[in-house]
Amino acid sequence: MGKWLLILAVFGAAFWFGRPLLQQGVGAATPVVASGEQPVVVLYATSWCGYCKMTREFFAANGIRYTEQDIEQSSTALQQHKKLGGNGVPLIVVGDEVINGWNEQALRHFLGPWLRS
Questions:
Q1: Which parts of the chain have pLDDT scores under 70?
Q2: Dihedral of CA 72/45/88/50: which sign?
Q3: Could you state, in order of their start, the residue ranges of all structural domains in the chain?
Q4: Which secondary-structure segment (H or E) carries 3?
Q5: b/e burial code for range 29-49 (CB count within 10 A of at least 16 → b)
Q6: Closest by alpha carbon to 88, among 99, 106, 105, 100?
Q7: CA dihedral of 24, 30, 36, 38, whole degrees rounded to 10
């Protein structure tokens, strides 16, 4: 019985102390608009990628300022792309959020207050 009580106590402690870690992720997906300035946007891309082209067009049509890093032209950009968990292009960083692949819904969510349309 003592062994089971110890196991139950360990699981209870893990649940109790792990709760704040789980709750941190809940608010992370909400864009921050407090400063009023557009967050820094970085596009990791290649010149031949069709989805990268769609991302560039989306940014141009909506007046989004961004910096583009070509992962085939810059080893530094490639290293940063891999560090961010990139396994393809485009990889888009909006503030602290990382978007893997073309995802207009996510872009609209994180850049909503700064979009023209």
A1: 8-9, 11-35, 117
A2: negative
A3: 1-28, 41-114
A4: helix 2-27
A5: eeeeeeeeebbebbbbbeeeb
A6: 100
A7: 100
pLDDT in tens, 7-37: 766 766 666 666 554 444 444 455 555 568 9
Degrees (nearest 5) of the Cα angle 63, 96, 26? Answer: 115
> Which CATH architecture best describes the domain 41-114?
3-Layer(aba) Sandwich (3.40)
CA-nearest of 50, 101, 35, 33 to 93 is 101
**pTM reported for the whole predicted model:** 0.71
Cβ pair 90, 48 in contact under 8 A: no
- Report yes or no: 81 and 69 within 8 Å, Cβ to Cβ: yes
